[in-house]
Amino acid sequence: MEATSVPIPRLASGFRRFGRFILHELRPKGKILTPFNVITGVIVAVGAVLLAIRFIWGLGSITNLSQDVPWGLWIGFDVVTGVAFAGGAYVVTFMVYILGQDKYHPIVRVTVLNGFLAYVFYAGALLLDLGRPWNVINPIIGNSFGVSSVLFLVAWHFLLYMVAEAVEFSPAVAEWLGWDRLRKLLKGLTVGAVIFGITLSTLHQSGLGALYLMAKPKIHPLWYSEFIPILFLVSSVFAGLSMVIFEGTITQKVFRHRVGRSLRASHDGIVLGLARVCAGTMFVYLFLQLLVFVHEQRWAYLGTGWGAWYLIELGGFVILPAVLFMTALRDRNLRLTRVAAVLTLVGILINRLNVSVIAFNWYAAERYFPTWMEIVVTLAVISVELWVFRWIVNRMPVLDFARHDDSDELRARVAGPPVAYQTQE
């Protein structure tokens, strides 16, 4: 009895210390009444009231959705566009852990964190759009699997990818908690999570495009094509990396006290390297768009208003930013790179909304337009996501972590034979 009772006080003491640590970490750091906090606080408060109305009186109480237009802003932006913006996670982890591009290692954790939070919040936004949100778990538990639907695949891809990203980011959580043994264990799982996550990303990025293959009569011919899944996949590469450039610029200023020496020293080279990848994939995307345009014989539509809108999307938000990326690379101009990244993000937003909202039911006499309440709820979701991101970055080793031997060790496991490496701090 004595031998078994000795650890109990230690265990209780450990739980108390852990509880005090968590309570301490939950406290706000810095000023509370800042312009950002006030503005987002109001948005979140109004959004919470609107969501209460939505769940009590139904979708029609705050949205313009109907039987003819069941998918609106919450799907077109929160999910279809948001998932493309989160594509940087699978691209960066592929470059670092599979291709061995070590210079991007300092941004791995923050990119994975951004991707994970985006999937959690944007997948969570699906619950807002479902008439019976409790049915969202049906594909998982086997109640009306719906295996004949593309949504069945998308649901599983979303779930599994969020798990994979959680595993990829888990070493940072273990370091924050001071659990070194667990961190080493979780590091050993990272290689599998990275490969699994990359595979899932290529599937669900294209899978979102595959959803619209079944809506051929409803999408304007300038935006419909059998190549939509491929176009969605390719565009997610430069969309995700442009978001990394955009967020990295803000992070360097807002969280400069948390940015480590490694990231600070390599930031410019990282941005230019990402710009090079963006430019290359954008020219691939442009070639595919032109191929589809010629193959589908869309010339007759160019003389219409829809044709002008199509040319604006392609010329102003694909060709122009691609040229700007190339110019920025030649001149090593970081400011121009950021401008190109912003234009690219706007272009992805326009393209995804064209497919899912603007050019959807384009022939209808009464068109869907989101209510101000739908917009506020979307802004509230983004605001809460930013709060969570700020809380994690201010506490966990995301931007200031020492460069461990993760990348070398993971590549060694992927390649097979062991390699010699040195730990760099």
What do you see in this structure?
By secondary structure, the protein is mainly α. It has a single domain, classed as Formate dehydrogenase/DMSO reductase fold (Up-down Bundle), CATH 1.20.1630.10. The protein has 16 helices and no strands. Helix 10 (180-211) packs across helix 11. The longest helix is centred in the middle third of the chain and has 35 residues, at 261-295. The chain is globular, with a radius of gyration of 23 Å. Residues 1-6 and 403-425 have low confidence and may be disordered.
Q: According to CATH, what is the topology?
A: Formate dehydrogenase/DMSO reductase fold
CATH superfamily, please? Formate dehydrogenase/DMSO reductase domain
- Provide the low-confidence segments as ranges: 1-6, 403-425
The major beta sheet can be summarized as:
none
Anisotropy-based shape: globular
What is the mean pLDDT? 86
Q: Rg, please? A: 23 Å
How many discrete structural domains? 1
Structural category = mainly alpha
List the helices and strands and how they pair.
Layout: H1 2-5, H2 7-26, H3 35-57, H4 73-85, H5 88-98, H6 108-124, H7 126-129, H8 138-141, H9 150-177, H10 180-211, H11 228-254, H12 261-295, H13 305-331, H14 334-358, H15 372-393, H16 406-415
Helix pairs in contact: 3-15, 4-6, 4-14, 5-6, 5-10, 5-11, 6-9, 6-15, 9-10, 10-11, 10-16, 11-12, 11-14, 12-13, 13-14
